[in-house]
Specification:
2 copies of one chain form a homodimer.
Chain A lengths: L5 E5 L4 H13 L3 E5 L10 H6 L7 E3 L5 E3 L1 H9 L9 H31 L2 H7 L3 H19 L12 H10 L13 H11 L12
Parallel strand pairs in A: 1-2
Antiparallel strand pairs in A: 1-3, 3-4
């Protein structure tokens, strides 16, 4: 038996899971990956629902068996006290502001468009084809909110790359797969390059 | 001119705004309320978009002009170091887990069903009538996740009522207005009564 290690229950293509891998890599926190299938129902089995009644990944399993779902909560907890969080309360409040923005106003359009347009079966996409214009309109609105912030700031909270940047990077950097044109958002594009240039960066396609 | 005071830009019927009023009342933090209309576009005017480019309330304006949107970030910031947050990192991680759960898996169905079924114009509801079954199915799934947690715990994080409970209370206590039957969730119903019995409770309909 090897040394005890955190286990990330995940799907490799999921931007929410990628955020956790990226924070782990940046902070040098070793973890094992347990992979689930994209549309095979494997996060809705009775065994998985015992681990997370909400039936979703990412789910972080600690060495002692404690379990934590929700990418935002996971990356907040992993990075408490580290250089990936600002050290004053006001900047931390803004960090959380952008993390909640991402989950409510960005992910449901940008990640969802990417999923159905790029990863789902064609017949499943056809059932949702009428939703594509709304995904694109609301996703572009979210990118515009980011653009207006980045016209005046290098990072989303405080003076360095924080978990707010990582949370937004997760699905923004691959938004092209959902039919978004990132070149229309030059400040966002420049910020994506800044995030990817940080030491310890990990591309989405790579394991931990 | 009166003493400087925080201003909450809000809509009285919004559960997201109610969370902020409730935390302020519990902690004895005075604030003025600035009311916006429900469907009159008043949070999408150029003047408001300068305050919050995402065009949403709640938005908290501090005495010195600093601005913070996103209910989750606002109530986290207002309650840092108070009895409304657990004092250890693991319980705080679980607090955030439930706050992200609420914004991603609960509010988009339970709050949205309540809004369109109860507050919107009938002709606007009719355009969305085909979405009601999905709102109800996913909203009930969220209530079931809460029920399973509350079958084993009094509160969502740590050993006392925290901002995770307040975040979930906001739209759960009025879910009946969206066509949800709370009596089907006895542990949720008992928890709602526990939250409402806390000192300094404030009903949704009351101003600060």
């Amino acid at each position: 038996m090897g040394a005890a290690m955190m286990i990330l229950h995940q799907m490799q293509m999921s931007g929410n899971c990628y955020k956790v891998r990226l924070v782990a890599r940046r902070l040098g926190l070793p973890m094992r990956l347990k992979e689930y299938g994209l549309m095979d129902g494997s996060t809705r089995t009775p065994a998985f629902l015992k681990l997370n009644p909400n039936g979703r990944v990412p789910l972080l399993e600690f060495e002692d068996g404690r379990l934590l779902p929700e990418s935002g909560a996971i990356i907040f907890h992993m990075s408490e006290g580290s250089r990936l969080q600002p050290d004053n309360a006001w900047d931390r409040a803004q960090m959380l502001q952008w993390m909640f923005f991402e989950q409510y106003s960005h992910e449901p359009y940008i990640a969802v468009a990417r999923f159905w347009l790029r990863y789902a079966k064609p017949q499943e996409l056809e059932k949702r084809r009428h939703l594509v214009p709304e995904w694109h309109a609301k996703g572009k609105a979210a990118l515009s909110v980011m653009e207006s912030h980045l016209n005046a700031h290098d990072w989303f909270a405080g003076r360095a790359c924080s978990i707010a940047d990582i949370a937004l990077y997760g699905y923004t950097h691959c938004a092209g797969e959902g039919g978004f044109e990132l070149l229309d958002f030059p400040a966002v594009s420049a910020w994506l390059a800044r995030v990817a240039a940080q030491p310890g960066h990990l591309p989405l396609g790579e394991g931990w």
